[in-house]
Write a structure and sequence with these properties.
Elements lengths: L3 E2 L2 E3 L2 E3 L3 E4 L8 E4 L17 H5 L2 H13 L7 H13 L4 H9 L1 H4 L2 H11 L2 H5 L2 E4 L5 E7 L2 E5 L6 H12 L3 E5 L7 H12 L4 H4 L1 E4 L6 H7 L7 E5 L2 H7 L8 E5 L3 E6 L7 H16 L11 E4 L5 H19 L14 H11 L5 E5 L6 E5 L15 E6 L4 H4 L6 E7 L1 H7 L3 H4 L3 E4 L17 H5 L1 E7 L12
Parallel strand pairs: 1-5, 8-9, 8-11, 9-10, 11-12, 13-14, 13-18, 14-17, 16-17, 18-19
Antiparallel strand pairs: 2-3, 2-10, 4-5, 6-7, 7-20, 15-16
């Protein structure tokens, strides 16, 4: 039986009929949504010219409506946000307090100056507002403007903030969005769109948002929609299989901006062991990187390389450090992290086998699936490190930084590092191996939308960069006079 209903939103219109059943992830959180096959022809813009209205308004007018949206997202007052939260209790992997916190944070995401910063830092507001002139060495003058595109967004479902960022990016780039609601966060984008429709029903920003649910891999549906005559860019977040699936539709005229799955790493220098106070401070930072949002994010710490050495004294000290991290993790506020709703049975089986012999690995905690720290007793991660989840991390002692660089690949997103001097030492090396973001330990999951992401500029790439030339024959050599 369906736990809730997910409406269809098409450019200001809410559709609540033609229901079909969809199963949630892992066999839970099933819901109903309008049959996407009946509405697939209504999702694309009727004509590219329909985007003209987004380019006729000023950037400040776009910020006005987004700012007003943020003011109307109060968790206790907005019924759509409450519906999204209730749906998330069934569909999302988060315990109630963490899930609620993600919604109480939503208004802050729509802070006017923060949104302006995204646009200015990643694109340049002048290019969004009109034509910017430049004169080149050969004498020609080029006028450049960033235009919006007809885009399909496939956001990740690991938190409602992703839907908010999707709507902000779409609006500031003056684009048209078809948003595929993720099955583990099926209602947040709908809640934001419906709130927009209530406060600004005729605004171009509202008229250029559609939100629908369809099952990923529904080729009959996708073949009708994923065409360059309807969509120019696909912004795809998510797991390896889903992102790889999208690539089959890429062709000339249809570009994919891939924010594909990543793993992250952590490097802690020997400076962490200067004294007990420093150890506890660094342990608290590491615990934050592990446990924030229950280790669901790509940026979450899982394997932590500690440059403490591998002799007996170093291993004893590392075990003590592991205890400190576990204690710090258990003491964190429940709205940031708490015992996971579920656990990976295969991971639990591996950990149970590890406990039977602590010669090579020692496990701290985890008896009640509340999270654990696995401390390697030599310089190798557990062979099941790709499975680490549910607030389970692995400390690995190393003598040589090469052991760390060998573990960094093109799938490495964030690397949290302590101390700052070590980060400065490694920042010209780790990107060569594939690392995409280097940050201070404790800030792995404290992210900003005003930065690049996954080693690309997704907001900039969402734009179409158009230039118009002025060539004066007296300044630019006229070929026809040869």
């Amino acid at each position: 039986m369906s736990a809730f209903d997910v409406p269809l939103f098409i450019r200001g219109k809410v559709i609540e009929e033609d229901w079909v059943e969809f199963g949630g992830r892992d066999g839970s959180g099933g819901f109903r949504a309008p049959d996407p096959h009946k509405y697939v022809d209504q999702l694309p813009l009727s004509s590219p010219m329909a985007l003209q209205d987004m380019h006729d308004i000023s950037f400040d007018e776009i910020l006005d409506v987004l700012e007003e949206l943020g003011k109307n997202l109060d968790f206790d007052k907005n019924p759509y946000i409450r519906q999204a939260y209730e749906a998330g209790l069934h569909a999302a992997p988060y315990p109630p307090e963490i899930l609620k916190n993600s919604y109480t944070m939503l208004p802050a995401v729509f802070d006017r100056e923060s949104m302006r910063e995204i646009a200015e830092q990643r694109i340049g507001v002048d290019y969004l507002n009109g034509w910017v002139s430049e004169t080149l060495l050969d004498g020609r003058k080029i006028n450049i403007r960033a235009f919006g595109a007809r885009a399909l967004h496939i956001p990740a479902g690991n938190g409602g903030l992703v839907s908010a960022i999707t709507i902000i990016r779409n609006a500031i780039t003056r684009s048209d969005a078809i948003i595929k609601a993720p099955s583990n966060d099926p209602m947040t984008a709908i809640a934001l769109a419906r709130t927009l429709a209530d406060i600004a029903p005729d605004h171009p920003v509202t008229k250029h948002i559609s939100v629908a649910y369809w099952k990923g891999g529904d080729e009959e549906f996708e073949k009708k929609l994923y065409k360059p005559e309807f969509i120019e860019k696909i912004v795809a977040w998510g797991g390896f299989a889903s992102v790889k699936h999208v690539t089959k539709y890429i062709q000339p005229g249809l570009e994919m901006i891939g924010l594909d799955p990543k793993r992250s790493a952590t490097i802690i220098g020997n400076e962490a062991f200067a004294d007990e106070d420093t150890m506890r401070e660094v342990a608290a930072r590491a615990a934050c990187d592990i446990a924030m949002a229950n280790q669901e994010a790509c940026a979450s710490a899982r394997v932590i390389y500690v440059m403490c050495g591998t002799d007996d004294a170093a291993i004893q000290q590392l075990n003590q450090f592991g205890e400190m991290i576990y204690e710090a993790m258990m003491a964190m506020p429940s709205f940031i992290t708490s015992k996971p709703k579920s656990h990976d049975r295969a991971l639990r089986d591996e950990m149970d086998a590890t406990r039977m012999d602590d010669t090579f690995y020692r496990i701290i905690g985890g008896d009640d699936n509340e999270g654990a720290i696995i401390v390697s007793q030599f310089d190798e991660a557990v062979d099941y490190s790709p499975m680490l989840s549910g607030r389970v991390a692995n400390l690995v002692p190393v003598d040589d930084i090469k052991k760390v660089t060998d573990a960094v690949t093109s799938y490495t997103q964030t690397v949290g590092i302590y101390p700052e001097s070590l980060k400065k030492q490694l920042r010209d090396q780790l990107p060569i191996f594939g690392a995409q973001r280097l940050t201070s330990l404790g800030y792995a999951c404290n992210v900003t939308s005003a930065s690049p992401q996954d080693a690309i500029e997704p907001v900039r790439r969402m734009c179409k960069w158009i230039f118009e030339e002025e060539c004066d024959p007296d300044k630019v050599f006229p070929l026809w006079r040869l």
